[in-house]
Design brief:
7-stranded mixed beta sheet; 15% strand; globular; pyridoxal phosphate; cysteine-S-conjugate beta-lyase activity
C-alpha cells in the first residue's frame, strides 16, 4: 500500500457509518434526511408520573430539561460513540470542557494525575491552576518513555493517566496499549485526548477508559463551531461522567450540535483528501534546505512512527515543521507573515489551511522533538497541494534573504 493510500484508508472506510448513523427512521409518511434542530429550555410532560419517569432516564440520552441536552445533541452523542467504538458520549460546550470535565469527575483532593508532557496547553493550564488549587497532585511524563521509566512516575495515589497522542504541537505518538496496562495495573484510568486520531484510532480497542474529542476540529470541519465530546465504554464510568456533566451544567447548544452532525457526514472524504495533501506537503518540506525536521506521524523519523503504523488506520492533516537552526524567531515571523494561503490561527481540522508558530509558547518538563530551533505547525486544508507548496516556497524566500 502506498503512503498516500495508507493515510487516507481509515477515513474512506468511515463513509457508510458517517452517512447512516444518527439518521431518522422513515415512518409511513416519510421523513427528512437530517434530524431537525430542536431549540428549547423547558420540556413539558403530560403528568407528574411521566416527568418523574423521564427524570430517572438521565443516563439514557432522553429529553428532560434543556440544560441536560436536546434531541439533536443526543443524536450527535450516538454518532460520536459509534465512531469511537464506545457505548455512551457526553457532548459539551468546547474541546477544553471535554478535557476538564472528566478530570473533575474522576479526581478528588489528595489524588494524583499523571499527564503526558505533550498535553494540550489549556489542559495543562487547568491542571496547574484549578486541579492544584483543589488539592490534586499533578506531574508529567516524557511522551516517549518506555514501560519501566513510566512506572517510576506512578504513585499509590495515581487515579488518572491523561495522554494526548499524537501531541498537537510536537506530534509524539504514544503506546496507548502499554499506558493502559500500566494504568490498570496500578488502579488508575487512562484518558486520551483523541482529537487528532478521531475516526482513525480506536481508543477502547487499545485499552483507553475514556476518549476526549474537540468536535471543533474534524467533525464540524468548517471553523464555525465550538464543541467537545467525551466517550466511554462502560456503564459505571458513564454514570459518573454523566452525573458530573449535569452537576456542572455542561451542555452544547442545539445549533452547534446540528452543524457538527452535518459536518460529520462529509468528514471521511474531507479528511482523506486533507491527509493525502498533508503527507505530500510534509514529504516535500523534508527536501527543502530551510527545514531541519518535519514532525508528521506517517514519516519514519517522527517519534512514535512505529506505533502509528501499528495502531492507526490513517493520518490527520496537522503536523509540525522545524526550521534549520540558523534562522531566528524574527526570520520565522517574517516568513509566516508573507504566507498568502495559510491563515495565521490556532485551530485546525477545518477546510482551510492554517499556520501557527510553536516556538516559545509551549511549556515542557522534558525535552521536545523540536529542540531549540524555531518551529511552526501546519493545518492542511482542501486547497490544491501544488498551490500550498508554491505559497510556502515563496515564503521561504523571506528566510533566504535574511
Amino acid at each position: 500500500m502506498t503512503d498516500q493510500n495508507r493515510v487516507a484508508e481509515g477515513w474512506l472506510k468511515l463513509g457508510t457509518a458517517l452517512s447512516h448513523t444518527a439518521r431518522l427512521t422513515p415512518d409511513d409518511h416519510g421523513c427528512y434526511v437530517n434530524p431537525p434542530v430542536t431549540r428549547g429550555s423547558t420540556v413539558v410532560f403530560p403528568s407528574l408520573e411521566a416527568m418523574q419517569r423521564q427524570g430517572n432516564a438521565r443516563y439514557d440520552h432522553e429529553s428532560i430539561y434543556g440544560a441536560m441536552g436536546s434531541p439533536i445533541q443526543h443524536e450527535l452523542e450516538k454518532a460520536i460513540a459509534t465512531i469511537e467504538g464506545g457505548t455512551d458520549c457526553q457532548i459539551v460546550s468546547s474541546g477544553l470542557a471535554a478535557c476538564t470535565l472528566p478530570l473533575l469527575a474522576f479526581l478528588s483532593a489528595g489524588d494524583h494525575c499523571l499527564f503526558s508532557d505533550s498535553v494540550y496547553g489549556p489542559t495543562r493550564r487547568f491542571a496547574e491552576t484549578v486541579l492544584r488549587r483543589f488539592g490534586v497532585e499533578v506531574s508529567y511524563f516524557p511522551p516517549m518513555a518506555e514501560e519501566e521509566e513510566l512506572e517510576a512516575f506512578i504513585t499509590p495515589r495515581t487515579r488518572v493517566i491523561f495522554t494526548e497522542s499524537p501531541g498537537s504541537h510536537t506530534f509524539e505518538v504514544q503506546d496507548i496499549p502499554m499506558l493502559a496496562q500500566i494504568a490498570h495495573r496500578n488502579g488508575a484510568k487512562l484518558f486520551i485526548d483523541n482529537t487528532w486520531g478521531f475516526g482513525i484510532f480506536a481508543p477502547f480497542a487499545h485499552g483507553a477508559d475514556l476518549s476526549i474529542q474537540a468536535l471543533t476540529k474534524y467533525p464540524a470541519g468548517h471553523s464555525d463551531v465550538i464543541a467537545g465530546a467525551i466517550t466511554v465504554a462502560d456503564r459505571k464510568t458513564w454514570e459518573q461522567l454523566r452525573d458530573t456533566a449535569i452537576q456542572t451544567g455542561q451542555v452544547a447548544g442545539p445549533d452547534d450540535c446540528w452543524l457538527t452532525l452535518r459536518g460529520l457526514r462529509t468528514m471521511g472524504v474531507r479528511l482523506a483528501q486533507q491527509a493525502r495533501s498533508a503527507l505530500d506537503l510534509a514529504t516535500w518540506l523534508q527536501q527543502q534546505p530551510e527545514v531541519a525536521r518535519v514532525l508528521h506521524p506517517a514519516l519514519p523519523d517522527c517519534p512514535g512512527h512505529a506505533v502509528w503504523a501499528r495502531d492507526f488506520t490513517g493520518a490527520g492533516c496537522l503536523f509540525g515543521v522545524v526550521l534549520a537552526p540558523r534562522y531566528t524567531g524574527q526570520d520565522m515571523e517574517r516568513m509566516i507573515n508573507s504566507l498568502r494561503l495559510f491563515g495565521i490561527g490556532a485551530s485546525w481540522g477545518g477546510y482551510e489551511s492554517l499556520v501557527l508558530p510553536t516556538t516559545g509558547g509551549i511549556q515542557r518538563a522534558f525535552p521536545s522533538p523540536m529542540g531549540q530551533a524555531c518551529a511552526f505547525r501546519l493545518q492542511v486544508g482542501l486547497e490544491q497541494t501544488a498551490d500550498l507548496m508554491s505559497d510556502l516556497k515563496q515564503a521561504f524566500t523571506q528566510l533566504q534573504t535574511a
